[in-house]
């Protein structure tokens, strides 16, 4: 007997925000691992919120599935279902995953021996030897913005520890966000930064959404990481001049994991610089089922030395397609508009 499919809208996963969209991808990814029957994702064209299509009949059932998943994790693990030794614990030096480029293959072999899934499904989406940082190390995906002593271990372990210690955060991630003081949110949304003027106690603090952050970190295996030999790039990211942007679509038809990956990498949805903004053509919206495109870029924080937080940027939707010059990257003058 076939299982009934329910369409469950998740009011807190607003796809118009970078964190909401990434958390929706992470939720799709996790549920696809756990469910026997297909799980699909769409977005409400009225509210912009994520909708899960599966045999799970309600938000409560989805929450229960996620809570049971988290409960299976060992207390010293950073990623549910993986060997607790991945990502490696940092020593006195730099992040163990940040190796010189010529040592990356050796690192990959070591990780695969520890955990084959970590070596095949996770490591290639976190660090790549197809790009290097200023120290000649294999570079991070642009989805990471380490600040201070943050590393890949803490990127995953902090959100997981938060939801493990307080399962209510999982329900809040889907039903209604509550920001928690001292949570960095891995800097995936700009609202995490609160000045003293925003704080009831008059103190500057970071306030993140633990459950949504944990789900967003679970999206990384869906986001391909590559590079041009010098600079890293990943699914959804686009670089113009010295500025990098993330752009993403919202769609109305239910799509599974593989279909979502194909859609979010579709070249027709790639933006181009236009008069100081990002522009995208709506010519492919109808055939792809897309009804909106949003964008964000890293916003640096005064007095802080890290890539910054993801803050929204204006997206111009045009009916025309890109001309040939834009498709090749645009003219130098147009690129300089966004060079900063």
- The helix/strand class is alpha+beta
Task: Enumerate the strands of the largest sheet in spatial order, edge to edge or round the barrel.
Answer: 11-12-15-16
Largest β-sheet summary:
4 strands, antiparallel
Look at the structure and give the mean pLDDT.
88
Terminal Cα span: 59 Å
Which residues sit in consecutive blocks of at least 5 with pLDDT less than 50? 324-340
What is the CA-atom radius of gyration, in angstroms?
20 Å
Strand fraction equals 15-25%
- Identify the overall geometry: globular
Helix content: 25-40%
> Secondary-structure element sequence?
EHEEHHHEEHHEEEHEEEEHEEHEEEHH
Give me the number of helical elements. 11
Could you please describe the fold and organization of this structure?
- It is a single chain.
- Helix content is 29%, strand content 24%.
- It has 340 residues and is of the alpha+beta class.
- The strands form 6 sheets. It has a 4-stranded antiparallel beta sheet with strand order 11-12-15-16. A 3-stranded antiparallel beta sheet has the order 1-3-2.
- The chain is globular, with a radius of gyration of 20 Å.
- The model is unreliable at 324-340 (pLDDT under 50).
Jot down its keywords.
single chain, 340 residues, alpha+beta, 4-stranded antiparallel sheet, 3-stranded antiparallel sheet, 11 helices, 17 strands
The gist of it:
This protein has 340 residues and is an alpha+beta fold.
């Amino acid at each position: 007997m076939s299982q009934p499919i329910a369409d469950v809208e998740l009011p807190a996963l607003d796809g118009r925000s970078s964190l909401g969209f990434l958390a929706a991808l992470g939720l799709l990814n996790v549920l696809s691992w756990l469910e026997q029957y297909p799980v699909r994702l769409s977005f409400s064209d009225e509210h912009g919120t994520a909708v899960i299509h599966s045999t799970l009949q309600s938000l409560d059932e989805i929450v229960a599935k996620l809570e049971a998943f988290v409960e299976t994790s060992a207390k010293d693990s950073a990623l549910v279902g993986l060997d607790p030794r991945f990502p490696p614990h940092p020593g006195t030096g730099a992040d163990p995953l940040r190796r010189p480029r010529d040592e990356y293959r050796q690192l990959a072999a070591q990780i695969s021996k520890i955990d084959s899934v970590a070596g095949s499904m996770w490591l290639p989406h976190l660090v790549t030897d197809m790009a290097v940082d200023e120290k000649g190390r294999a570079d991070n995906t642009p989805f990471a913005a380490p600040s201070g002593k943050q590393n890949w271990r803490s990127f995953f372990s902090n959100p997981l520890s938060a939801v493990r210690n307080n399962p209510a955060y999982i329900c809040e991630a889907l039903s209604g966000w509550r920001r928690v003081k001292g949570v960095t949110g891995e800097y995936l949304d700009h609202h995490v930064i609160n000045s003293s003027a925003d704080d009831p106690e008059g103190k500057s603090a970071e306030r993140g959404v633990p459950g949504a952050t944990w789900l967003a970190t679970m999206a990384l295996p869906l986001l391909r990481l590559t590079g041009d030999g010098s600079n890293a790039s990943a699914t959804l990211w686009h670089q113009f001049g010295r500025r990098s942007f993330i752009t993403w679509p919202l769609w109305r038809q239910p799509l599974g994991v593989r279909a979502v990956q194909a859609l979010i990498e579709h070249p027709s949805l790639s933006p181009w610089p236009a008069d100081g903004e990002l522009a995208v053509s709506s010519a492919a919206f109808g055939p792809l089922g897309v009804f909106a495109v949003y964008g964000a870029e890293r916003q640096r924080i005064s007095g802080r030395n890290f890539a910054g937080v993801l803050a929204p940027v204006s997206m111009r939707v045009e009916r025309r397609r890109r001309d040939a010059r834009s498709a090749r990257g645009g003219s130098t003058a147009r690129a300089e508009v966004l060079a900063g």
